[in-house]
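Record type: monomer structure entry
Structure origin: computed from sequence
Chain ID: A
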Amino acid sequence: MRTELSERLGIEHAIFGFTPFPAVAAAITRAGGLGVLGAVRYGEAEELAKDLDWMDAHVGGLPYGVDVVMPAKKVENVTVADVEAMIPEGHRAFVRETLARYGVPELAEGERAGWRITGWMEEVARSHVDVALEHPIKLLASALGHPPEDVIAQAHAAGVLVAALAGSARHARHHAEAGIDIVVAQGHEAGGHTGEIGTMVLVPEIAAAVAPLPVLAAGGIGTGAQAAAGLALGAQGVWLGSVWLTVAESELRSPVLRAKLLAAGSGDTVRSRSLTGKPARQLRTEWTEAWDGPESPGTLPMPLQGLLVADALSRIQGYETPELIGTPVGQIVGQMTEERPVAAVMDELTRGFEQAVARLDRIAGNIAGNGSSGEAGA
């Protein structure tokens, strides 16, 4: 599964695997793809540096990437404390009441919220970029639009390619004008933050809009046949996230959440603002339903919503409250029915890709053969 982009990056397969877990990212890279470690969950740059040091020691010198989240426009002198002070008390009360309704205990004294995502803050995201570029990464990706132009220049000076996710051709052109190298066309089916356009429509639109920049297809891709479809639509690779949540190397250790993911169908997700303030596809739970219900005060804009619900999500995860526990995941969850190691998933992807291409070759050959016979008979 080779393309010009995979050759440029020195990877065997044009499979880009986004994950928040270092062990999964390293395993994807070792299996011939490009593991991309999500940095948004790291509150401190030192924590990210520690995990990137681990990655360096476990990828065997093979290439990997880092994904950050930051606004394209620079904002000066805004701290996490400043943002938290903007959260209305009514929203805090709604969170408390919802947790109390389901009997979710408080965090133990001194316990830190694992879901406290401060990586949305520019000051934190910039520190993530600085740390990432101190390591031998080959790709810097940005999940919500392209990074500021000075960050793009910083990455290019280090010889690192820059990718940005896009949910429309307009967004993709904006990224291209800013100087990024790769556009990830993320369709409506994808997990996490998504737009309104499905992958089948979006990928060729973006490929045409930003040519000759390479495009990666994302959203609703979890098999080799789906990867082949992405390349047939004009992509030079595929970007997968959800399929790695239930692999054996995943740090998603909650038995309740794993069971929910493995049992979920493709219709068991919802785009909700309850996690970050922006529409993000995730498992449908009574938590997401509460935020869309008549008693909800409404979600707050990013990054306020993420800071508001951080402790609550840590409590839900920590105590495995079955009605409320969930995670960002795409509609491909319906095909995630068993726990397997990353290497097995990669093997199935590549074999499925080869089988799909061979099937299309046979179809094309049959059509060509029938056409030739018809002409000869005439």
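Annotation 1: Residues 373-378 have pLDDT under 50 and may be disordered.
Annotation 2: The radius of gyration is 21 Å.
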